[in-house]
Design brief:
A hairpin with a 6-residue loop joins strand 5 and strand 6. The chain has 489 residues and is α+β, with helices and mostly antiparallel strands. It is built from 10 helices and 22 strands. The protein is elongated and about 155 Å long. The strands form 7 sheets. A 5-stranded antiparallel sheet has the order 1-18-3-14-15, with no helix packed on it. It has 3 domains: 247 residues; 74 residues, no CATH class; 130 residues, no CATH class. Helix 3 packs antiparallel against helix 9, helix 3 runs antiparallel to helix 10 and helix 5 runs antiparallel to helix 6.
């Protein structure tokens, strides 16, 4: 019975004594939790710092990516090609192209050989042709088709034609499945269905001949499978030549060239001419340095630099009105990066005798620390492209002072971003502090749980004791009252 009474007192603290145990413990624990609150606030700040350095790392990485193309020599060798008649001849260039003017005259376009069966010979795609085998060989015919030169590296491709594939459609499918360098199609009109065989690639060497082993015993007549034979050299032309294979024939600056396709990619170093039609007069293709690509590269670098400057400025600013400092204000790593960045912009370089500062090529430092390109100054610098190239891209492993500006920025970003660099090191340090802070919070939470348990036990015991004292006091008071009444009587 006594145990039940004690349990009721503990679960309803304060009822018997008037003591507000829950309120007392809550207020005392609020004081005890102050160190935990500080740890939590410090942990939140470190998480924000980690995020801020993540943004800074991303901005530095973007600057590295923007600087990289500018210290590659090929970035300054890009060219443009302009054609006086793009519908006739167009051109693409690579860094190997030499600026100049090219005159192209086209007298013939590359074509593939095409042969077709006789009109009215077959009524439909289901018409039975015959059985046996068809042999295709790639090669070039002379002008009169009296001589055939097999294509180098090619061989006879023999295609069996059985009873299941003896129709016009079946033979078409068998030829296409053989990958023999020849494609087959069916053409249907009012006269019936014809089979057309065409070279899969253009050029004289991709012509072809067809010989037949006909199960009817005659491989040269127009009956059975031999209706598809085509070998003028052997006197067999059961298919009609619709188009002979041909090469592109052209002159470039008066030099005769021949090619198997209408794309001339191996004729002039760094250039690919696309031949679209036979020309009636020469087409002029002008190749010039693509200085706009260089300018675009410099502008991308400036944009990446300005983004990094903005990230640094936001992270380190101080608001005098609110007297609030940004998260990384005064941080040694961040301040060091800012100082190094400003130093790189103002440094001289011995890479070029003509352009020794970024300002000299038109990359101007602004009052807010950002960069801006002076178009007029940069246009003048581009006219001296060899020196501009050196000013930005020169690499001298033995003498860093001779490195171009882009190379310097690339090396600087590498030092910040490498595995053992400044930013990964800073990130690891913050992560270690966050881990330690988390462990401190866990230990603090364990201690606070024990403190709260002890407090509740102590104040519950006090509550019980006070309740008993109150009950005893009431009992004594009642006894005195009773005794006084009996005395008066």
């Amino acid at each position: 019975m006594a145990l039940s009474s004690a349990t009721a007192t503990i679960s309803s603290a304060g009822i018997g004594s008037g003591l507000d145990v829950n309120s007392i413990v809550t207020q005392l624990m609020a004081v005890e939790k102050q160190p935990l609150t500080k740890l939590q606030a410090a942990g939140a700040t470190m998480q924000t710092q980690l995020s801020a350095f993540g943004q800074l790392k991303s901005a530095v990485s973007a600057l590295k990516d923007a600087a990289a193309p500018l210290f590659k020599a090929e970035s300054y060798q890009l060219t443009n090609a302009a054609s006086s008649d793009p519908t006739g001849v167009s051109a693409g260039t690579t860094a190997k192209a030499v600026p100049g003017t090219y005159s192209i005259a086209v007298s013939a376009l590359a074509a593939g050989q095409s042969i077709v069966s006789t009109a009215g010979q077959f009524s439909a795609s289901t018409a039975v042709v015959g059985t046996g085998s068809i042999t295709i060989r790639l090669g070039g015919w002379n002008a009169g088709q009296t001589a055939f030169v097999p294509k180098a590296g090619s061989s006879d491709i023999t295609i069996p034609v059985g009873a299941s594939a003896n129709t016009l459609a079946g033979i078409r499918d068998a030829i296409n499945a053989a990958n023999a360098g020849v494609s087959a199609t069916l053409v249907t009109d009012s006269s019936g269905t014809r089979i057309a065989l065409s070279s899969a690639a253009t050029g004289i060497e991709n012509g072809f001949k067809i010989s037949v082993a006909d199960d009817d015993g005659n491989a040269t007549d127009a009956a059975g499978l031999s209706a598809l034979a085509f070998d003028p050299q052997a006197g067999v032309t059961n298919l009609t030549l619709a188009q002979p294979a041909a090469n592109t024939l052209a002159t470039i600056n008066g030099i005769a060239v021949s090619a198997t396709s209408n794309s001339l990619g191996d004729v002039v170093d760094g250039m690919t001419f696309s031949i679209n039609k036979v020309t009636t007069s020469p087409v002029t293709v002008t190749v010039s340095r693509n200085t706009e690509a260089i300018k675009d590269g410099v502008n991308r670098f400036i944009a990446a630099y300005n983004q990094l400057i903005q990230v640094l400025s936001e992270a380190t600013k101080y608001d005098p009105a609110t007297k609030q400092a940004a998260l990384l204000q005064g941080d040694n790593t961040t301040v060091g990066i800012q100082n190094q960045l400003h130093g790189l912009v103002s440094q001289n370089s011995a890479a070029s005798s003509a352009f020794q500062t970024l300002s000299s090529i038109g990359v101007q430092l602004q009052k807010d620390g950002s960069l801006k390109l002076d178009d007029t100054k940069f246009a003048a610098a581009v006219k001296n492209l060899p020196e501009l190239t050196k000013a930005l891209s020169n690499v001298d492993p033995s003498t860093p002072a001779n490195n171009g500006f882009a190379k310097r920025f690339a090396a600087w970003t590498d030092n910040l971003l490498n595995t053992d660099g400044t930013l990964p090191g800073k990130t690891k340090s913050i992560q270690a502090r966050i881990a330690a802070n988390q462990k401190d919070q866990e230990r603090m939470n364990d201690r606070l749980a024990q403190v709260e348990q002890r407090m509740r036990a102590q104040y519950s015991a006090l509550d019980t004791a006070m309740a008993k004292a109150n009950a005893l006091s009431k009992y004594v008071t009642q006894q005195i009252t009773t005794w006084n009444k009996s005395k008066d009587e």
